[in-house]
């Protein structure tokens, strides 16, 4: 296994210090964009967010699926979500990802461009998000949140027309709730999870009825 924080650098973004006030997501994003590294890797993002890496990486891989993306994108971005959600569900204290994921990176300028687009929206959300409804962000609640994200990641990769958007929104809401310890955001995530299951059930029912509609004439032809 690879320890994502095993290769610190003098120019790296400082990790979260439990004795200091939490930096906002947008602040950490800005610090990453302003770092002196030529490339910004997933591993460096993990290091920068510290104990909030679970939420940060869930958001990173889920949010693009909530937007119109080329076919197959959900399958590619969904794979890392399995690793992250499963570890959240079992109560892992530190997020581990395979080296081939942690070493993936963007050029600093590309990351800065991305951060410049995302940061204003994140900053607006941060003004709405705050630690509250602690029962929804407790240790036990986080295990259920991780399990929900794991199941949602399974739904995310299914070839359902427009079916990847609700689970992506749900995981993104969970992620924001984890990052800011906001139980209301977690509640929004559970509501979106219910919507995802409803869409999956409707899609499954439609498929079964479609199969029955095509199968019935064939069975009748053969005398069944």
TrEMBL record:
Residues 1-15 have a biased composition (Low complexity). Keywords: Membrane, Transmembrane, Transmembrane helix. It comes from the Bacteria. The chain crosses the membrane at residues 75-97, 144-163, 183-203. The keyword Translocase does not apply. InterPro entries: ExoD (IPR010331). Residues 1-23 are annotated as: Disordered. This is ABC transporter permease.
């Amino acid at each position: 296994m690879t320890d994502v924080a095993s290769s610190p650098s003098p120019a790296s973004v400082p990790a979260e210090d439990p004795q200091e006030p939490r930096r906002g997501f947008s602040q950490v994003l800005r610090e990453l964009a302003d770092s002196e590294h030529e490339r910004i890797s997933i591993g460096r993002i993990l290091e920068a967010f510290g104990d909030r890496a679970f939420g940060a990486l869930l958001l990173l891989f889920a949010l693009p699926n909530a937007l119109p993306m080329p076919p197959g994108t959900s399958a590619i971005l969904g794979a890392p979500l399995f690793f992250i959600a499963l570890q959240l569900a079992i109560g892992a204290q530190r997020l581990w990802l395979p080296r081939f994921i942690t070493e993936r990176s963007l050029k600093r300028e590309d990351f800065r461009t991305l951060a410049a687009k995302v940061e204003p929206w994140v900053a607006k959300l941060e003004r709405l998000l705050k630690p509250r409804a602690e029962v929804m962000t407790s240790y036990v609640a986080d295990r259920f949140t991780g399990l929900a994200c794991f199941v949602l990641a399974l739904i995310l990769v299914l070839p359902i027309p427009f079916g990847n958007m609700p689970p992506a929104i749900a995981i993104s809401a969970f992620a924001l709730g984890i990052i800011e310890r906001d139980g209301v955001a977690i509640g929004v995530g559970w509501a979106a999870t219910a919507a995802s299951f409803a869409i999956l059930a409707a899609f499954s029912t439609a498929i079964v009825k479609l199969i029955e509609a095509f199968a019935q004439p064939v069975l009748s032809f053969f005398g069944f």
